[in-house]
# Entry
Amino acid sequence: MALTKRQKEVLDFISGFVEENGYCPSYEEIAGGLRLASLATVHKHISVLEGKNYLKRGFNQSRSLELTAKYQPEHRRHKAALEIPLAGRIAAGAPVEAVEQREVLSFADFAGDGNTYALEVRGNSMIDDHICDGDFILLERTTEARDGDIVVALLSGSETTLKRFYRAPGDLVRLQPANSALSPIVVPARNVEIQGRLLAVLRKYR
# Structure
């Protein structure tokens, strides 16, 4: 049976947690890591994945989850589909000697994270940061931002914009465009909700 997107995120979270910590996550850690509303939701996903033979679990144990062999080949195929050869580096200035390299550029770090999402850019307010109309941007879902971060900001609960974030005196926030023809947006901090922080820009030429 095919996995839903959320079920895949649960499996990938468990796998990544085990790789990083050496033991499986608790249901509370799964709920927190994937921003699930309740432990009942975690229990439901775990039960379904157990029924599909992707997980095994012990009874009455907090950290008893185990990924089955069925998950591993599918995980490897999925990861391979997110990798492309990194053939080397190309000069944008003076020419350099062409030397073939055998590396891989992996997008799994982005796509495998349930907190990553994409948006299509409309407009050229960030063009001086090389973010153009029609580009796709990858964002980390977060409510926190540091001065200078490029963020998706929700203004007064109704409109969103992509700008550089800066705190300003008087409990204000300045959302700075990267376009000299446009003025910054200065609003009370209470009217700004950060919804994401820029990770990468993707551009298609055909």
